Amino acid sequence: MIDLIASDLDGTLIGSDFRFRPRTLEALRAAALAGVRIVFVTGRPLRWLGPVLEQLGQQWPGPRSYAICSNGAVTFDIAERKVLASRTMPASQVLGIHQQLQQAFPQGLFIAETLDQVFVQGTYRPQVEEDLSRLHEGPLLETLPSSAQLVKYLLYLEGATPADLLSQVQDLLGQQVSITRSAPYQPLVEIAQKGVNKGQVLADWAAQWGVDAQRVVAFGDMPNDAEMLRWAGWGYAMGSGLPALQQEVGRVCPGFDQDGAAQVIEALLVGQVPPEVITGW
Fold it and tell me: Considering the entire predicted model, what is its pTM?
């Protein structure tokens, strides 16, 4: 019934401890063994993917498994452990945007990420252990090489309301770039190349594989998942996710703590058709 499973990671397939739950991992493994393509579609940068992929184990049936990282900016082949494509912004463009945001939010933390380097202006507290040799601190106008190609640029503003900060940045930058947020309670805005989002990049790859949207099931919990969930024939907002996303998508599965994604995958693998809206299983 389905050819491809596309899912966000944090808050959808993995918890705050950055780990899969056993039932969810087993459902994904069963789908992969059945020949279904698995694509992890995440806001995480590629450098944060290692600890997640380690949990798949050596026996993971991965030749048809991929990761789309940084909200669509990077596509990674899990089996081959190699980058297949990147969609970047030149340093000149990012620095122009940076000057606008720095003027509007002088107390902000600003982060510019290439495929393998991180440039930070402000106090940086990484969520995971970082390779400090990749970290460069100081004003971006001084530290960011003019030749750099950026996969993501971020603004964090302590004390701001997340939704309000997103709206303010959208008003300032307009249609220059893609703007979203992925952290439910953090005032963090993520910026990528114009037109780059999870849904568009996933649609492009599915077309290359000859996979129709109606044969795709997708899961997510935050605004950066919206385009992906709207595109997929079976797009599910997590019951534990943002209420506004649930309303926008209109199809909701149980939350993370109930292994909601696993419940849907299990049903689809045995030929059952889950209802349009799931309020509790």
Answer: 0.93
